[in-house]
Design goal:
CATH topology of chain A: OB fold (Dihydrolipoamide Acetyltransferase, E2P)
Strand content of chain B: 35-45%
CATH topology of the largest domain in chain B: Gyrase A, domain 2
CATH superfamily of the largest domain in chain B: Probable tRNA modification gtpase trme, domain 1
Helix content of chain A: 10-25%
CATH architecture of chain A: Beta Barrel
Order of helices and strands of chain A: EEEHEEEEEHHEH
Radius of gyration of chain A: 14 Å
Order of helices and strands of chain B: EEHEEHEEEHEEHEEEHEHHEEEEEE
CATH class of chain A: Mainly Beta
Number of domains of chain B: 3
Number of helices of chain A: 4
Helix content of chain B: 10-25%
Distance between the termini of chain B: 34 Å
Shape of chain B: globular
Oligomer: heterodimer
Strand order of the largest sheet of chain A: 1-2-3-9-8-5
Structural class of chain A: alpha+beta
CATH class of the largest domain in chain B: Alpha Beta
Largest interface: A-B, 13 and 16 residues
Number of strands of chain B: 19
Number of strands of chain A: 9
Largest sheet of chain A: 6 strands, antiparallel
Chain lengths: 131, 350
């Protein structure tokens, strides 16, 4: 069974978001890493880049597929987990911990309200698994 | 599991990387029963095979196999196949699953005056591919037959447990390996037997994902990627399987003419010098001039870096023929990334 921690928020594209002071941390969910399979490559923005809600801010590639990463909100990238660039397999191993991707200062923290709580995300994943 | 050409196929069992590395270091077992088989029988069987394939079918002996192409009249590729010769009047094509119906219809159409019987045997056979350096040990122990005298691209008939097997020393991975044909309902028995013998030696089940990364490391063409109805086999680098001087065959005239005109494209292998993984369909450029498209790309598990193949327009790079070392660019997510043409295969043993 995939892990869906209660304290995080989630997007339709299977990213998770965690509040950390005035920053928002973004990663991909356990379900996402499991569906992708062995992740062999990741592309992330650089510090100082701007991400725009709904636009791709990077990509994850597994031996099976390419998957874009979509910005759940707009903001400035303050920190990038560069360890992932050399060790993308970390995303399979620890999607909610070591494999955080970027920390972003959001322009409008209110956009966080558009995201799913863990209960709705669990239902969302269950539905997708049935298909 | 995914649907592939009407078959439920495993993309992976444990994971593409582990399965891939098992084939390179010990052995992997693939269920390739989806591959189609078309049997040709009758007095004209050999001359018919010679007429519909690009390689010289007349050159192989009984119990020998040959990689060859079935071409259309424009010189494009209907399918790439392995031809197994039992005798002059009995041969068998092993064809791609996605093409098996198309190929069967095609050969029926070409039958004409040839005195042959054409049988679609696709559903009669299970085909298991045992590939890797330990495959000879595992297979000979499993079926109780010595394979030491079996040369590459040759096959033998064997009996195991009352079941007739065709054991061919062929494969699609670059490793020593065998492809075993047997009656469709005996597949699970042999699968289990091979794991009894090989499980302790590192044998792993391997899926379509590893099959693709293994063949790509060897620079082998995959139908629908490097080759198709519109590709010229010479542009795809398959010239050694096209024997223009071994009698007439369908497509020969068109291929000969293309050679006289000069080839328009060249299939090359490349490695990335910038970050990024090339994927089928991505554009290839040189100084922003469009050259062609990536046909296959992946992250190579053996080399631990991204590799790809694709067509370059024109045989010239400005100062001469496209060659190893030339720098090109791949368009990945709207940015140009550097890549360098390299010699094939990507993966070389040792």
């Amino acid at each position: 069974m995939v892990q869906i921690p209660g304290e995080l928020k989630y997007t339709n594209d299977h990213e998770w978001v965690k509040e950390e002071g005035d920053l928002l941390v973004i990663g991909i969910s356990d379900y996402a890493q499991d569906s992708l399979g062995e992740i062999v490559y990741i592309e992330l923005p650089s510090e100082g880049d701007e991400i725009t809600k709904g636009d791709p801010f990077g990509a994850v590639e597994s031996t099976k597929a390419v998957s874009d990463l979509y910005a759940p909100f707009s903001g400035d990238v303050m920190e990038v987990n560069e360890v992932l660039l050399d060790s993308p397999e970390t995303i399979n191993e620890d999607p909610y911990g070591e494999a955080w991707m970027i920390k972003v200062k959001p322009y409008d923290p209110g956009e966080l309200a558009d995201l799913m709580e863990s209960a709705s995300y669990t239902e969302y994943v269950e539905k997708e698994m049935e298909e | 599991m995914v649907e592939f050409a009407g078959w439920e196929m495993p993309v992976q069992y444990e994971g593409v990387r582990q399965e891939h590395l098992a084939v390179r270091s010990s052995a992997g077992l693939f269920d390739v029963s989806h591959m189609g088989e078309i049997e040709v029988r009758g007095p004209d069987a050999l001359s018919f095979c010679q007429f519909i394939t690009s390689n010289d079918a007349g050159r192989i002996k009984n119990n020998q196999a040959q990689y060859t192409l079935i071409c259309n009249f424009s010189g494009g590729v209907v399918d790439d196949v392995i031809l197994y010769k039992f005798s002059d009047d009995n041969l068998l094509f092993c064809v791609n699953a996605s093409n098996s119906e198309k190929v069967y219809e095609w050969v029926l159409e070409q039958k004409g005056q040839f005195d042959v019987e054409l049988l679609d045997r696709s559903l009669d056979f299970t085909q298991l591919a045992l590939q890797g350096p330990l495959s000879e040990n595992i297979l000979s122990e499993s079926i109780g037959s010595s394979l030491s005298g079996l040369k590459r691209f040759h096959f033998i008939s064997a009996t195991w447990n009352g079941t007739d097997l065709i054991v061919a020393r062929t494969g699609y991975t670059g490793e020593n390996g065998y492809e075993v044909f047997l009656p469709w309902d005996k597949g699970p028995d042999l699968w289990s037997r091979l794991f009894e013998a090989g499980g302790g030696q590192g044998l792993k089940p391997a899926g379509l994902g590893a099959r693709d990364t293994l063949r790509l490391e060897m620079g082998y063409s995959l139908y629908g990627h490097e080759i198709g109805e519109d590709t010229n086999p010479l542009e795809a680098g398959l010239g050694r399987y096209v024997k223009l001087d071994a009698g007439d065959f369908i497509g020969r005239q068109a291929i000969t003419e293309s050679l006289a005109r000069g080839l328009a494209n060249k299939l090359v292998g490349f490695c990335m010098t910038d970050r990024g993984i090339p994927r089928q369909g991505y554009g290839i450029f040189k100084n922003t001039e469009f050259l062609g498209r990536v046909t296959s790309g992946t992250f190579s598990p053996s080399l631990e870096k991204p590799i790809g193949m694709g067509y370059l327009k024109g045989v010239e790079n400005g100062s001469g023929a496209w060659d190893v070392g030339d720098i090109i660019e791949i368009e990945i997510r709207n940015t140009f990334r550097g890549a360098q043409v390299v010699a094939l295969p990507f993966y070389k043993k040792g």
